[in-house]
Each structure stands twice: as C-alpha cells, then as structure tokens.
C-alpha cells in the first residue's frame, strides 16, 4: 500500500513524457536512465519482483504490536472526532430533515432574537468566555483517561515541562553572557581554595610553635597541663577542634561496633557488676567530650570570616606572638623582624 | 383509568353531584368491595352519612387551593385517616412526630401561600430537608385529588428511589402501597384506580405523555431532583413549559437540591422560588498540596490516616467503579488489620456500594459501626467505598469524613464516532460540593479532596454536563416525534444538544425506517415508540416475525435490556467460564444468551430450585428473573399491537440462521469487519473505527463479519456481545444503509462490492436457467 503512495504510478508519467518523444528516433529509452522510475522497479527481474511483493505482503500480514494498534486506534478515533458531521459528504439525510425544520447552522434550541443569534455564531458555543452560556454547537469531547493519575497531575506536568523549556531557553540566552563570568568565577574559587589551604598551614605552624614553647616550659616546671579548648587562641582553635571531633566520631563508631549493638551510653538496669565485667563493659569506654558539645560563638564568628582575612589574622598572630613570618618560614629573634619584606604574600614575591 | 379520568371535566373542590357520580364510576369496583359509607371519597355524597355514625372526614371542610397548614395539621392529627377512614395506627403518630421535625415543615404555610399564587414554582431544598416525601403530601392536602380526579405525580430519576420513596410516603400516610399512594416505573406499575399520589420515574411520565399530550390525568406535576438533569427530566421540563401555556390549571413544581435554582427560574418564565435550608453542619475542606500520582493509593492512604488520627465518625470514599471499589475495600481491610495488631487501632467495617451490587449487600451500608474491640478500646467505625450513587441518591447517616479523589464514571456520547460509553472523568465543582456536603449530615465534618485547590478552581467544570448533552438521542427523538413535537430544531430545551447529535439521531431513525425522508413518523416508527426500548431493539423486535423467530428475538431483547446475566466472581473465574462455555453457541454471544435463558426456563419447568440452579451455573438469578419480567411486559405490548409470536422449529437447520438474520434487521448499523485474515482487529462499518472483540465473548473462531450490541470505550475500543453474520445479509436486509455508493473507498467497500458482484452473478445464473 504505502509503496504505491510514495511512488507515483510510472505509467502515467511515461505517457506524459512520450508526447515529447521523437517517434522517429531509433534509440530506445533505457529504463535505468528514466528518472521517474523508482529504484525498486529499476531493472527489476521477475524474480526480484516476486521477492519484493512477497516481502510487502509479509509486512502487511505481520500482526501489529499492541502499541502500534493502540496508536492506530487512537489516530482513527481522533480523525473521526475532529471531523464535523455537518460538513461531511455525502450530506446526511438527518441534516436535510433539520434544514426542513429551519436549521441554518449554529446551535439548536429556542430561537433567539436575530442580534443575539449572530453573536452566538461568532462565539462558537460551549463553556464560553461570554457571560451567558450559549447552547453548544460542538459535541462534548471524549477524553480517555489512562491509569490513576490524580486531577491536576497532567497539567502540573505540562506546566513543569513548559517551565523547564522556558528555563532552558533562558539559560541558553544567559550562557553567552556568562562565559567570561565563568572564568572569573573559577579563578576566584581556585584562589579561595588556595587561601584556605594556606590558612590551615598557618594554623598548623602556630600549633607546632605553641607546643614547642609549652614543652620547653614543662621541662622547666615538670608538670603536665591540659588545656581546655577555649584557652587556645581562636586563630588555631578551629584546627584542634576539628581534629578532636574527628577523633570522637571515630571512637564512637568503634564503640558502637563493639558495643553489642547498643548505644554505649545505654545502661541496662538488669545488668549487675558481674554482667558488665563479662560483657567487657567494666569500664565506660566512652568519654564524653563535654568541651566539644559546647557552643563556641567566638570560633563560629571567626570561621565566618572570608579566608583571606583569616589567613591575615593567623599571619599577624604568628608575627606578634612568636616573631615568625609565615611567608619567610623563619622565626625572627626579636619583634623588629629584620629582613622580612612585609606582612603580605605579595611583599615576599 | 387514563381514559375515564380524561372524560372528567376539571373542577374545583365544590364539585356538584353529577360530577361525583362520574367519579363513582371510575371507582366502581372498589366501592363495591368497600362499605360505601366508609369510603372517604364518597363521604361528601352521602349527606345523611355526615351526621350520625358515618365517617366524617376532616377533608370535607377543605376548599381546594385555599387550604392552610393549620387545617392540614388538624386533619393529620385526627384519629381516623382522612384518606381511608380507617383508624390511624400507632406507627403513624410516631412517624408524624418525626415528620414535624423536618426543616420543610416549618415552611408549610409559606409553601402553600406561594403554591396558591403561582402556576409554576421552583423549590430548593438541600438533602435532608424532607422535600421528596413532604412536599407531595402538602400538595395532596391542598389539591384534593379525590374530588377532582386529577392525580399528583412526583418524578424521580431512579427506579429504586421511586419505589422506596413511595413506600415511605405510604407509611407516612398510613395507607397501603399501591392504593392511595403508588409508583410506576418501567416494566412495573403499582397503582390502582384509587391512587391519588403517584411516584414515578421521569422516563415513565414521559412515556405516559406520548398518549396524553396534555398530561390531562394530572393536576399537579412535581419534578424532583431536577438538578440531576437527566435526559427525561430535561425533556419533561421542555414539554411542561409548553403544556403550562395550554393548561392553566396544571400546577408544576420543580424541585432541586442545589442552589443553582436561578437557571430553573429563568427557564420557567421567572417562576417564584422557595428555599428551605437543609439540616447540615459545616464541613471543613482539605486539599492536597501536590497533585496525586495515583488517586486510588492516595485514597486508601487517606482513609487509613483518618482512621489512625481522627476522632469517631464514619468515612465515605468516592471511587469510580466496581473493580476499583472492590480493590480498595480489600486493601483498606488488610491495612486496618495490621493497624489493629500493631498500634491498637479501632475496628473498621468496610462496605462497597455500587449499582450492580445485590440489594441485600447494598443494605449493609446502613449497619451500625462496629463496637470497640474491648471495653474502653478505641471506637470502631465503618468505611463506605461508593460510586457517585452516594452523592445524591442515598443518604447515609453518621458520615463525618468524606474522601474525594475527584473522579466518577460518566456516560458520554459522541455522534462523530457513535460511541456511547462510560468513561472515568473529573467531576464538576457542583459535584465536589455535593460530595463534601455528605460529611455534614450528622455533625460538623471534614472533606479530604485528593487534588490541589488550584486544580479544583482551574480544572473542574462548574456543573456536570446534563445527560442530554452526553447521550445518543435516537430514542429521545422518536419519543419527541410521538409527543407531537414537530420542530425539533427549535424545541426549547434548557441545554440544547449539539446539532450533530440531533442529526445522527434523525439519520439513524431514518435508516431504521422509523422516520421518512421528511422527518415524519412512519408506521414502523409509531409502533417502535410503543416499546420502552431503544429504537434498534424495538425495530428488531417488530420485524422479527418476518424471520420466523419473534419468540427468540423477544427473549434476546429482554436479556439485552437487563444487566449482564453472567456472574464471574473473582475467586471462581475459571469455574464461571467453564459454566458459561456449556451454554456457548459457536456463532456468538446473542445465541449464547438465548441458550442460557432456555436452560433457565427448562430448569424452572423441571421444578428445580432455580436460585440454586443459577448459583451453580454462575448466572444471576436476579437479572434472569427480571429479564423474564421484561419479557412478559414486552410480550403484552406485542400482543396488543398484533405482532405475531412465531418460532422456527428447533430441528430446522435454519433455526439459528433466522435469529442471526433477525438481529441484523435492528442492528445493521452495528457491524464490524475483520481487518485482515490473520488479525484480531475489526473495523466498524462506515465509522471506520478499529475495535477488538471484548474478552468476555464466547466466539473463538475469527469470523470476518460480526454484528455487535455495544461499542465500549475503556482504554481500548471494544465491541461487546457479538454474533457472526454473513455480508450477503447486510445487502439484502438493509439495502438503504448498505448502498455502496455512500461508502468511502476502502477495504469494507471493496469487500462488499465483491459480495454484491457474487450475488448478482448467482442471480444471473438462476435467471439464465
């Protein structure tokens, strides 16, 4: 069927051509050169032809898949539903009867005054934009609902698709303008990450120097002093806190894995001392890091600062406290810090 | 009755003696049975009976159209029933007390005043106001039909409602159903010559009007539930509008449950309106924040959440159809069992409710909610999962929570493909309000809508489309023609249908030879309109004697007029199918239906327990016996119109062939041809729709041509109840429709052309000999 539609019947074309042909010419038209003949018929032997017809017949006879059927069914239905019967050919006898009763198009029902009737014909009846409902001129549409989607889901989905499409268009528009901006942003991000790393390095230096100083003191005094977190200067307190938190989490995880699937803090009232010993719970293995649970507004405030500021502060702290220049990587003997070119990294370039 | 009362002149209450003697005639057989002196109709005749021991009806003092609520109350309070003269029962006074508590009762006088002042009245009363039972009685006490001989009719859209309301009102008036108060529905008439107040389906009143264009039997016609806008109610309204001009003495009351009454007022020449508040409580409405992916799942979840967290009160869930409802019931019951085990929830009874459910199961919805599982435990509740029949027609007390997914199955007809089908569609705003209102019947309630507020505002239409816009009008057009409506195009309907729908109807009736080319009723059309059947069925029945099988076609017609007789329970599908296979006729479903019916009658004659027999054979006793009843009614109509009842002898090999041919005489417009030799797909004639044969069929061999009873549209397009036919018959039986020049080019046309050619050759050969 379909092949016939695509290929215009060759015979008729040839008829047309032949009028211009020179009858007296002794040359025979080579069918293979005829541009109107399609490939399938070009130089087709009877065997080939039979094969082609067989293949076509097979294609026709192949049972259609469910999806194909459904699509075809719907296409037919939609085609029929969108075709008004009033204009279809041949004219229906029903319409002729209605014409006899005075039907002249438009809607049915009580005759309205002329003016209104005209209005109504413009307005294509139905649930209308106009204030009054006009009688309908079209049958109610058939909408077939598949599945159990709730009311509004369909339109919500359509809305989302529309919005997505709009957003995509918007993005495409913006993309050009953003190209330069993108490079700038990447540069800024890389810079921020570098500053952050330097800040952490500065903290580590501060801690190392502080510990060295303390050890010197201890050796002199011979006592051990533990320091609460809050006693650590804010510039490198974050480092210690983060480390301790990581350590606590590791410990808790370990305890949990060991602790017979109970939270380590769980106290069983029925367990006596012996049970506890037997279960290896003689000691409470969990040490609550009370310090860590406390809020530290000072640190939070500090952490909220941009990385360059935090780096500046830790550098300044090192200089003032230990006469150490982060950039020279050198601890100067006095506060004049002779030989150091300045506060900032650029100064050391 | 109709003819005798028609003879009566209209008169007011002050009827003279001669008039009443006529009335006496109409009551002749009754009064013979009764003590004449006790007959309240005649009480006013026997002047001497008034004093002394005779019954003195309080109604004697009444003056038609001038009565008051007080007078009526006195009559109602009297010891003797004013309508029968018998003493009132205890039950009567008990009911009377509850009646006086109904909201409409307070406005009885107001109603009467308005009723006296106008010909047409629009009455709005929400569900629970008591309008359906009370207003007709108020009219009865004012209209005094026993004096005028003009009945009061009150129409109902549904058969069941007409029957149950009539029973209720008979109880309220302390009379026997079928006497003073009766009902009339298709295939069943429970009235007598003494009937004063008649409940009936709207379709039934329409049928009566075909023989009585002025509805002269009635003094007052009440159209109840007009807001439902059934096809028949819409036609009745248009007719009554015309009749009201001709018969100034006819009173009309249009009753509606919704506040959309203005449309009715405008339509009925700006008729006055009386509104009575219903007995309703506020209902809080909840929407979902997001549209639901699966409304059934969301509905089940919502019901369970209500059960888990809301205080006592029953739940009403609206779904679309039997299958869905049964599924939901199962899921809810299972989940509730879990909840009881795991979190000590209260018990819950879950009841389905849909039209095809047997009545005794429908009754279960009125059962009390279950008691707590133990003393002091969490209260039980019931959950009713219903189609939209619970929206208006049934009132269930105790409902506090309503879950509304927003869908219902709605009939839809499109003339362009000629498909009339039930499709799941979104409900209207009006419908959603009605559903919500169900939660506020006993106390303040909650309604959970399973859609967003935005979707409610934007996606739901305002009002449900009236049935007239959603139906095939072939039957209606035939009725209208019979009702004497000439100009169908300008017939003043409230919502005129699309012109194409009308065109299709006229065209179909023309092909069925019920209307001639001028649109006039033919003799066949006249006869067809006598049958309360679709024109195709009626024509098939009327022409069946020509095929020597009117007995069989009568049976098939009856079987097609009732719901499916096959029972196929979920837990015994295979057995049911096996049983059905016993009745199967290889040529098709129509013949299989006939076989089952014959077997049923055989079992009945053999003196078997038919109910048991039906149960064993997976047949519906209810539907088979109602088919039997329909058959008897149709048979009576056939006999009145001298339509022969004949059969081909069963031994004759043409027995089934004749039946198959007779089917085509009515259903030649419902034929499909197989698309190709190895396909299961059929193409409908002329409409070119692709269809499959419904899986319920018994047909196993793939026939090339089939006639079908209905075209159903679900997610697929099916033809249901099919029988094998031969294409030659089409050209022979319906040459007008199968005029090949009117066919569009295509496979069907070429196939039929080949058939025509073959016939021609065969005839030529015969002629040659």
How would you state the average pLDDT of chain A, rounded?
72
Total DSSP helices of chain A: 12
Q: The biggest beta sheet of chain B, please?
A: 8 strands, mixed
Mean pLDDT of chain B: 88
Count of helices of chain B? 31
Unreliable spans of chain B: 1-37, 46-53
Percentage of helical residues of chain B?
A: 40-55%
Radius of gyration of chain A equals 45 Å
GO cellular component, one term (chain B): post-mRNA release spliceosomal complex
Keywords (chain B): ATP-binding, Helicase, Hydrolase, mRNA processing, mRNA splicing, Nucleotide-binding, Nucleus
Protein name (chain B): RNA helicase
Pfam family, one (chain B): OB_NTP_bind
SSE blueprint and pairings:
The complex is a heterodimer of chains A (349) and B (769).
Chain A: H1 2-6, H2 10-20, H3 46-61, H4 66-81, H5 93-100, H6 114-122, H7 153-221, H8 234-258, H9 273-278, H10 290-293, H11 297-303, H12 307-322, E1 324-325, E2 330-331
Antiparallel strand pairs in A: 1-2
Helix pairs in contact in A: 7-8, 7-12, 8-11
Chain B: H1 2-6, H2 17-26, H3 28-33, H4 40-43, H5 47-50, H6 69-77, H7 90-101, H8 108-117, E1 120-125, H9 131-143, H10 145-148, E2 151-156, H11 159-173, E3 181-185, E4 188-190, E5 197-201, H12 202-209, E6 218-223, H13 231-246, E7 251-256, H14 261-267, E8 273-276, E9 283-287, H15 295-309, E10 314-318, H16 322-343, E11 348-353, H17 359-363, E12 381-386, E13 399-404, E14 407-414, E15 419-426, H18 429-437, E16 445-449, H19 453-459, H20 474-482, H21 499-511, H22 523-528, H23 535-543, H24 550-560, H25 573-583, H26 589-605, H27 610-616, H28 621-640, H29 655-667, E17 671-674, E18 682-684, E19 690-693, E20 705-713, E21 717-724, H30 727-733, H31 747-768
Parallel strand pairs in B: 1-7, 1-8, 2-5, 2-6, 3-5, 6-7, 9-16, 10-12, 10-13, 11-12, 13-16, 19-21
Antiparallel strand pairs in B: 3-4, 14-15, 17-18, 17-20, 18-19, 20-21
